[in-house]
Amino acid sequence: MGFRASLLVALAFASSALATTPNPRPNPMLLHSAYTPWTLDGALNVTKYSTMAQAAQAKAMGVNTVFVCGSMAEFDKMTIDERKTLAEAWLEWGTAEGLYIIVNVGTTVLAEAKELAAHALEHGAAAIASVPPYYNAAPDIPTLVSWLKDMASAAPTLPFFYYHLPGVTQVNIPIATFMAEAESQGFSQLMAGGVKYVGSDYNDFLNTANWVAASQYSADPPLVLFAPEPKLQGFALQSPYAGAVLAEDFYAPT
């Protein structure tokens, strides 16, 4: 075998070694949305050591789940290649710390979202997530569910989390209705994942928690991860699984 052929084989082996084995879904799920490190001139500054430090700090503060390429990571300001680079770093070093890694693949471009979903699967993500289309919004909930289901199909074995962020996306739908529609469309990936609920409609949150409790998935239900205060109600209204979206864990132990 010539040098070039040997090099190609070595590169292929190194690439395959990048994939990690996801950690199991924790209970309760304490979710941390990680910042993206940048240089002073605005370039991505992801290194092995910066990611290792963030992952180790998250674990030391009691976090067991990291949401990668989310709002705090400024995913909307990143190129597809930058998002892949950030995801790969967290999938390698966050997973090594025992963290459950959810990769946000959301974008208004369906083809790019599917590309990111396939990349997350290839590199060992535990789950994927997405915001809704937020420029030209879906006209109704059935259309939104269908759009997200198509996106998630690029990583068919991964749980999917809907990123409910109406204050930013301006897509403010009743999540209880959304969950029922997803179930009727057979969106099994969502039922294996859940919702990152970053909204303050407590009535809708209660309706959603009640829907989950009454659903056929009550033995292993989708999670509704509550972000606003008081976070404790997110635990009180979910059984047997519970979780919360954290922000304060950047500064103090959980």
Unreliable runs:
1-17
Largest sheet, spatial ordering of strands: 7-6-5-4-3-2-1-8
Portion of residues in beta strands equals 5-15%
SSE pattern, N- to C-terminal: HEHEHEHEHEHHHEHEHE
User: What fold name goes in the CATH topology slot?
Assistant: TIM Barrel
CATH C-level class: Alpha Beta
Number of domains: 1
Overall SS class: alpha/beta
CATH architecture: Alpha-Beta Barrel
The overall pLDDT average reads 85
| Helical content band | 40-55%
How far the N terminus sits from the C terminus, by CA atoms, comes to 55 Å
Assembly annotation: single chain
Q: Tell me, what's the shape?
A: globular
Strand segment count: 8
Largest β sheet strand count, sense and barrel closure? 8 strands, parallel
Radius of gyration: 18 Å
CATH homology superfamily: Aldolase class I
**Count of helices?**
10
Short description:
Helices cover 42% and strands 14% of the residues. The chain is of the alpha/beta class. Mean pLDDT is 85; it is low at 1-17.
Overview of this protein structure:
- The chain has a single domain (21-250), classed as Alpha-Beta Barrel (TIM Barrel), CATH 3.20.20.
- The termini are far apart.
- Strands 7-6-5-4-3-2-1-8 form an 8-stranded parallel beta sheet.
- Helices cover 42% and strands 14% of the residues.
- The model is unreliable at 1-17 (pLDDT under 50).
- Helix 2 (48-60) crosses helix 3, helix 4 crosses helix 5 and helix 5 packs across helix 7 (175-184).
- With 254 residues, it is of the alpha/beta class.
